[in-house]
Amino acid sequence: MLGRIEDFALERYFARWEFAVRHQLSASDVGPLSMSELLALADPESRARWDSLTLGYTESMGLPDLRAEIARTYANLDPKHVLVVAGAEEGIFLSMLASLSPGEHAVVVTPAYQSLHAIPRTAGASVTMVPLLHETGWLLDVDAVERAITRHTRLLAINFPHNPTGSHIDENTMRRLAKLATDARIMLFSDEVYRGLEYLPGDTVTAAADLSATAVSLGVMSKAYALAGIRIGWLATQNEAWLDRVARLKDYTTICSSAPSEILALIALRAREQVLSRSRSIVAANLEHANRFFAARQDAVDWVAPRAGSVAFPRLLAGNATDVSTRLAEHESALLLPGTVFGADAAHFRLGLGRRDFPVAIERLGKILADS
Question: What phi, psi does 144 have (nearest 5°)?
């Protein structure tokens, strides 16, 4: 069955262009820390671990101290509630296979990272999409989510702060979603990989795993922590039986994590205030620049400013984002991601706000828009 999975449109697009251009204007992560920057943040115990590290197999659930540090980022979780995985992708893949069977049903808020709906379909489940709409400022309609749930539903997948729109929800909405899932006796799978990139402290909502005994929170070091290359993510849930089922599936994928990557993740998490402050400052400066850029181009682009996270999803008022992206890559060595890779209409494109060369890259987009 898995051999017939649909092509991952976003990753195929990146495979063609990502490393062929000089500027990434569509990246979803924050510009990565260098090894020297990260090691400079290490506490003495973590640095000693790094210096004495041997390159053998690691524990399949994850380094115990790393799991403990991840658990500290939640209010109600212990290390036993955390499973370390190889980036968010493995977490989604294993979670969907562990939770859904043929004939069952999932509800997914879209546009979305393709795995959130492609893996359920590959597992034999049907999927109902609940769209965020540009016309409403990408706000979630919780009533539409509730209407989509049927007696066959087993999982509700959400992602906030949201990729690709930059939308977000408030605390009351998060609690309503958790209660909705609990009352329907389904899993709330909450993709929280942009957690930590909220623009104001009060914008951070309670993690799903802290709100419900059956909810799952997905986290990763790639986005807010600016460490995509170490390929460390995690699943957090109070549902120990479900987590054990996922761990048994992991025996057929990565088995265990990279030993160096686990120590690097531990260093970053122990220094999380410094790491997250760096990421938020980069995004804030780029968002200010983007607001000025699009304010001067209201005749060309419909700009809904993001409410959290490191991405936004503008819409061209004329033309096709795939054509614009191709010309931008070929003539200006900068990359945009057309909205079609998310199943959205051809006018949208994802804008990444996390790279330090953003001001240079977006001016190159301005040249292409001026020629359109």
Answer: -65, -40
β-strand 126-131 against 105-110: which pairing, if any? parallel
How many other C-beta atoms can be found within 10 angstroms of the C-beta atom of residue 305? 13
Question: Exposure pattern of 3-24 as b/e (b: 16+ CB <10 Å)?
Answer: eeeeebbbeebbeebeeebebb
Mean pLDDT over residues 199-224, rounded? 96
What is the residue-averaged pLDDT of the chain?
Answer: 96
Nearest CA to 25 out of 219, 289, 300 is that of 289
One-letter amino acid for residue 4 of the chain = R
- 177 φ, ψ (degrees, to nearest 5): -65, -40
182, 208 Cβ separation under 8 angstroms: no
Residue labelled with tokens 């419909």: 302
Pull the structure tokens for residue 184: 């329907």
Got the DSSP string for 295-336?
HTTTTTEE----SBSSEE--EESSS-HHHHHHHHHHHHSEE-
DSSP 185: T
Cα separation, 168 vs 197, in Å, equals 11
335 and 17 Cβ atoms separated by less than 8 Å: yes
Tokens standing for residue 67: 């799991």
- In contact, 278 and 131? CB cutoff 8 Å: no
- List residues bridging with 236 in a β-sheet: 82, 217
Torsion, Cα of 17, 20, 22, 27 (10° steps)? 30
- For residue 3, name the pLDDT band (cuts at 50, 70, 90): low
> In degrees to the nearest 10, what's the CA dihedral of 336, 341, 345, 348?
-20
Task: Summarize pLDDT for 331-353 with one digit per residue, the tens.
Answer: 999 999 999 999 999 999 999 99
- CA 166/CA 325 separation, integer angstroms: 20
